[in-house]
Specification:
heterodimer; A: alpha/beta; six-stranded mixed sheet; B: about 200 residues; Arc Repressor Mutant, subunit A
Chain lengths: ~850, ~200
């Protein structure tokens, strides 16, 4: 054997089979030269190994990993079916913007399709102007896709190329552009931009679809098909380019630009659909700032959450052909669904088959209740109480909204939520209402009372007692000292848990500034400080710490809670927002899983002015009851985050309310006038009941209210003068039915009394409001009243409450439809969808 | 360390697939191979960004694949797919700037003392420099063998070469590197005249 035989190397590297190796060693034993050769090879191999081993590797970004894991989970539902596996050709890499040249090359014609209608025209013009300035070229605006023509508010200086046609318009909120380059003038630079924005619809999603076809041969032709959102309030942008038919299209093109100007980087989703492999050499540009600020590739860190593969929005088909959907799920897909402004949703792509994963995390299926370990405390509906016997109704406020997000999760997954998961007050309080603000310099709260006949029992009066907390301008808020306490145990290891937690934290961190401090404590087996308290203007440091969080181990919450409070105390800001934010699925499963002990710790710290916010994530072993109790004891609030959208509601839209407590231990006591009221029933707030004497007892803990928060409570009131019998109660043996209650001559129906403490006070303040019922019918009530009443009725139907009267989903639907108000945030329209879902799953 | 004692990455096997298993399996593969796949992809793409993209796509494809066919040999599968993704990019992108040796050397993992680091980076630099002179197919095989620690058979699967071809390329490459380190013979045609 000569020293050049590759077998030597194979042997040295251990690649020979056992038999071969034995035989080879026999030869080696007799040949010193070969032995030396083998040694040399090994030596070289070691050197190479060291050299190459030292070379840096780079892990995927956490977003990329997230997406893979999401897909891994999503995958087995459909992917095992086999054939649909070949989506890979549709994933196209989109390098980030590298230089500033593309705009100068682009654009003779810009079509700005305002997806969401006329409201966007202003923005579009502004944007168009900007593009025009940059390009020193003319700009066209093609307004609303509904009429899809040239907007005369900005007359085009020269006609649009005939080739540009807005071929397909499927709905008011979707822009579809088919553009055939074959008929474009040779050598003409063309920019196709579709976009839109609607400042008054923050939850709106803009969708534009551009199909490009044809061939551009001229080198001078630049194409910048792009999406341009002018409205800064647009929350989601979905764009799709279908390039399948664009054979050779890109060859002559300098680049493809995707322009977007969104309020939130994370919410940008771009789909490039089609096969680009045959058309190399173009550069695809993503410029999140539209024609404005440039981002170099190096800055792309802040853009890394863009999913370039694709987005899919789930859509569900209701009976009436109305589509709706929930939160975006990020997973690879070759389809893009859609959109809405006012929540009437359409889809640009085929409706997904019903077996598709739901937009919200799917609750664990419950085969015989085996796997579902979600825990809810049972709720018994408040009964009617006779005013003669119990004239005072006392309860603690509750601004939590977790129950709504939680039942949404169930309904979206086509499951009926457990009755005890339906806490009506949390459903009602989920929605923003426009109650009058407190007057300046007075109390931080204002009481509003309104009454009308109950829609489910016309003879009864429905009385709404509402509170509105003063609003605090986020910019003028007190400094924050926030400690995130994160459950990173194994049970958090699913996409709708830890990754969602991380995104939520990012959202909040971005709202903070230099005055604010952020720390992160994780717990899983043992607790660990992942980020010492750091001022929030160190964005990179904080975000880096967030992104590096991983799950693993089991949960030992109490140690983590102690550590978190320790840090919060150390950096306590007097007069500021000192808060521990616990993010968990509530699965405290190691060590002292002693609810009592946790409560003790939390209560003690709450007294020192450190508030507790609990955010529930995930499902399956979601311990609703534990979480709610802990947050109540911790002077805190409790939310359930089922989606990025919900995270945005809590941490962006309503961040002041979440972070800034304006009053604590808020208690309501209502005294009913027996001259006007026979009996009453508080709808919801079952677990917030207080004894009458607790109202004036400042030691009794009660609910907190955040800046701008509203609290709404309904009483169903049986007025005097109608036949009514307390159900199930025998006539009293020792008392005669009161002949005539000894009443004052007051016309008042009731008085609402309120006690609260300033955030750092130990003694309570008091205010009250007397109310005279004007006898309005339900239809005369305000929109807010009717909508909230509809939500309450919805809760009762869902709970199958014995007091639901004539309530039914159809009734709820008609109430809600006619009380959409401004539909701020799109929540009211989403509610319509949930009604339909509820009707479907309860059939 | 002796090359022969290299731990071969054992193939995580998957059987009786449940959704959870599958997710765990993919997660484990991601953890185990994510970084080295990225490093490998970068040798084609020249930049980390597209390398990461290639790896992401590889895993996304894995998610969609019928895993029963892959489950007993995921490593070569991953490398093979990743390779073709990376090559796709290469075709699409503008002619890439080759990764500079000096750049690689600079990025070498820091060692304990400054002097050790310097020495190391010089040594690393020289080996990497030498490797740069290898033909592309040898370079790749060397990386797959010593960086990704694949077996001949796996390398063959990834690259589409035959096993004996892989063995040959490695043998020749190592021999070349050895000679270069020792300052023996100049095998490079273009450098032959210079010295």
């Amino acid at each position: 054997m000569n020293p050049d035989d590759p077998k030597l190397t194979a042997y040295a590297l251990g690649e020979l089979s056992e038999e071969e190796a034995i035989e080879f060693e026999r030869i080696l034993a007799q040949d010193k030269g070969l032995r030396e050769a083998v040694d040399e090879i090994r030596e070289t191999a070691d050197t190479v190994l060291t050299a190459l081993g030292g070379e840096v590797a780079s892990a995927l970004t956490s977003e990329q990993e997230e997406q893979i894991i999401t897909t891994a989970i999503e995958g087995e539902a459909g992917a095992n079916a086999g054939a649909n596996a070949e989506a890979e050709a549709k994933i196209v890499r989109v390098p980030f913007y590298r230089n500033a040249t593309y705009l100068s090359m682009a654009a003779a014609a810009v079509m700005l399709l305002s997806i969401l209608g006329a409201l966007t025209v202003f923005n579009d013009i502004r944007k168009a102007d900007e593009i025009a300035r940059n390009n020193k070229k003319s700009v066209y605006i093609v307004d609303t896709p509904t009429n899809a023509g040239v907007d005369l508010t900005k007359p085009p200086p020269s006609p649009l190329p005939e080739a540009v046609e807005v071929a397909r318009v499927e709905s008011q909120v979707e822009a579809v552009v088919d553009f055939d380059f074959d008929s474009a003038s040779p050598g003409e630079a063309v920019t196709v931009t579709a976009g839109g924005g609607n400042a008054s619809v923050p939850e709106a999603v803009a969708v534009a679809k551009i199909s490009l076809a044809g061939d551009i041969s001229s080198d001078e032709t630049a194409i910048s098909p792009g999406f341009d959102i002018g409205g800064t309030e647009i929350d989601e942008l979905r764009g799709s380019y279908d390039l399948d038919d664009a054979e050779g299209l890109i060859n002559g093109a300098e680049n493809i630009a995707i322009l977007a100007n969104t309020v939130n980087d994370e919410s940008l989703g771009v789909v490039l659909d089609g096969n680009l492999s045959s058309v190399p050499e173009q550069e695809i540009v993503i410029d999140l700032d539209g024609g404005g600020r440039r981002r170099s590739e190096k800055d792309s860190g802040s853009l890394s959450s863009i999913k370039l593969d694709s987005y899919r929005k789930q859509a569900r088909n209701s009976d009436e052909g109305r589509y709706s959907f929930g939160e975006i799920q990020e997973f690879a897909s070759d389809s893009l669904n859609v959109v809405t402004n006012s929540g009437v949703v359409t889809t640009a792509f085929p409706i997904l088959p019903p077996e598709s994963p739901p937009p919200y995390p799917m609750p664990t299926p419950v085969p015989g209740g085996e796997f579902n370990t979600e825990v809810y405390d049972s709720i018994v509906d408040n009964p009617f109480l006779m005013v003669e016997r119990i004239p005072l109704s006392t309860f603690s406020i509750d601004v939590d909204t977790a129950a709504y997000a939680n039942i949404r999760r169930f309904l979206t997954a086509n499951q009926r939520p457990p009755k005890d998961a339906v806490r009506i007050e949390e459903l009602v309080n989920y929605f923003p209402y426009e109650y009058a603000l407190p007057e300046e310099n007075e109390h931080p709260l204002k009481i509003n009372v309104e009454a009308a006949s109950a829609p489910w029992q016309a003879e009864h009066r429905l009385v709404r007692v509402a509170l509105k907390g003063k609003e605090i301008d986020w910019e003028e808020r007190a400094a924050s000292n926030v400690v995130f306490l994160l459950d990173v145990s194994g049970s958090m290891n699913s996409p709708n848990k830890l990754p969602l937690v991380k995104r939520s934290m990012e959202l909040l961190t971005r709202k903070f500034g230099q005055r604010d401090r952020v720390a992160i404590v994780t717990y899983a087996g043992q607790s660990q400080v992942a980020l010492p308290s750091t001022t929030a203007d160190n964005t990179e440091t904080v975000l880096h710490a967030i992104r590096n969080l991983n799950s693993g181990g089991s949960t030992h919450a109490s140690a983590g809670i102690e550590d978190a409070y320790k840090i919060a105390e150390k950096h306590f800001i007097k007069g500021g927002n000192n808060r521990v934010i616990l993010c968990t699925d509530g699965d405290f499963n190691v060590g002292v899983t002693n609810r009592g002990k946790l409560v003790d710790i939390i209560e003690a710290k709450a007294k020192k002015g450190i508030f507790l916010t609990i955010l529930g994530f995930g499902m399956g072993n979601y311990k609703d009851s534990t979480l709610e109790e802990l947050s109540n004891k911790g002077n805190g609030n409790y939310g359930y985050i089922d989606s990025l959208r919900e995270a945005r509601k809590v941490f962006v839209e309503q961040v002041a309310g979440t972070m800034m407590t304006i009053a604590k231990d808020v208690k309501i006591q209502v005294e009913f006038n027996p001259a006007k009221v026979q009996a009453y029933r508080l709808i919801g707030y079952e677990n917030r009941h207080l004894e009458a004497q607790d109202f004036n007892d400042d030691k009794k803990d009660a609910g907190e209210i955040g800046a701008g928060h509203t609290v709404t409570a309904f009483y169903e009131v049986v007025p005097t003068g109608i036949e009514w019998e307390a159900p199930g109660i025998d006539p009293l043996k020792y008392q005669k039915p009161a002949v005539k209650p000894r009443v004052t001559g007051s016309e008042e129906m009731l008085t609402v009394k309120l006690r609260y403490k300033q955030p750092e006070a130990d003694t309570s303040s008091y205010l009250d409001l007397a109310f005279v019922d004007s006898g309005k019918g339900f239809e005369e009530a305000t929109e807010d009243f009717r909508f909230a009443a509809g939500v309450a009725a919805f809760g009762m139907v869902l709970r199958d409450s014995p007091f639901k009267g004539t309530s039914a989903f159809a009734m709820v639907r008609s109430i809600a439809e006619n009380a959409q108000g401004k539909n701020r945030g799109g929540y009211r329209s989403e509610f319509l969808y949930l009604i339909d879902q509820a009707e479907m799953v309860t059939q | 360390m002796n090359a022969r004692q290299l731990d071969k990455p054992e193939n995580t096997r998957m059987s009786d697939e449940t959704p959870d298993d599958r997710q765990q399996w993919i997660r484990a593969l991601l953890e185990r191979h994510g970084s080295s796949l990225t490093r490998y992809a970068r040798t084609f793409t020249g930049d980390w960004e597209s390398a990461r993209d290639a790896v992401q796509e590889t895993f996304l494809r894995l998610c969609r694949e019928d895993t029963s066919k892959i489950s007993d040999h995921p490593t070569p599968w991953l490398y093979r797919v990743c390779r073709s993704r990376a090559l796709d990019y290469l075709r699409k992108e503008e002619p890439m700037t080759p990764v500079e040796n000096s750049q690689l050397a600079l990025e070498a993992a820091p060692e304990s003392s400054p002097s050790a680091r310097l020495e190391k980076s010089e040594a690393v630099g020289s080996v990497l420099e030498i490797m740069e002179a290898l033909p592309a197919n040898q370079k790749e095989v060397v990386r797959l063998k010593f960086q990704s620690e694949l077996s001949y058979k796996e390398i063959a699967e990834v690259t589409g070469l035959t096993v004996s071809n892989v063995g040959y390329l490695l043998h020749v490459a190592l021999k070349f590197i050895r000679k270069q380190i020792r300052g023996e013979g100049e095998l490079l045609p273009e450098s032959q005249g210079e010295t």
